[in-house]
Amino acid sequence: MAKSKSTPGVKKEEKDAKSVKTKAENRNVTEDSKMTEASEVNETVSNDSYQNELTAERDKYLRLAAEYDNFRKRSAKEREKTYTDARADVIGKLLPVYDNLERALKMECSDESYYKGVELIMTQLTDMLGTLGVKEIPAVGEPFDPNLHNAVMSVENPELGENMVAEEIQKGFTLGDRVIRFSTVLVTK
């Protein structure tokens, strides 16, 4: 009888051992699947963080490129403005020479060659101002424009009408859209 008692017990022990082994294998499989899932989650999180970092760096790069482009454009505008201001300043300093030559040409001169020399200098100065883009402001017979003319006195002149430039005392000049010197004029009432 001893054999019959030991046989069911051995089978039970074998069953218990198989059960424990199966449970252990299931635990290992479960742990492996959990680890696989955890590594997949880590990879996904890792990929997402890399993607976020890449996006952030790309945004930084684009912002930096835009800032540089704006800086370049602003520098070019400042250079152009500085050049235009310097040119206008130099031309403004040459205008008294123009005025003096114009007065000299209005005076009578007994020496014809001297007068011709002054006339040639005036022509050369006028041509040089023209090549630089300087233009005279039209005045006599034009309507008075406070953006171009500086009225120093008003006069009666029924032929011209009201608020017209009757006489120009000093010529005005523009450089492009910028007024270098306003025309000094007499305006009709």
Give a concise summary:
It contains two helices and six strands. The protein is of the alpha+beta class.
Please give the radius of gyration in angstroms.
48 Å
CATH superfamily heading of the domain at 134-189: Head domain of nucleotide exchange factor GrpE
- How many beta strands in the DSSP annotation? 6
Strand content: 15-25%
Describe the main β-sheet briefly. 3 strands, antiparallel
Q: List SSEs in N-to-C order.
A: HHEEEEEE
Please state the average pLDDT score: 84
Briefly, what CATH class of the domain at 134-189? Mainly Beta
Level of helix content?
55-70%
Order of strands across the main sheet: 1-4-5
- The global form is rod-shaped
Q: Tally the helices.
A: 2
Q: Detail the poorly predicted runs.
A: none
3D architecture notes:
The chain is an alpha+beta fold. Helices cover 66% and strands 15% of the residues. The chain is built from two helices and six strands; from the N terminus they run ααββββββ. The protein is rod-shaped, with a radius of gyration of 48 Å. The model has no long low-confidence stretch (mean pLDDT 84).
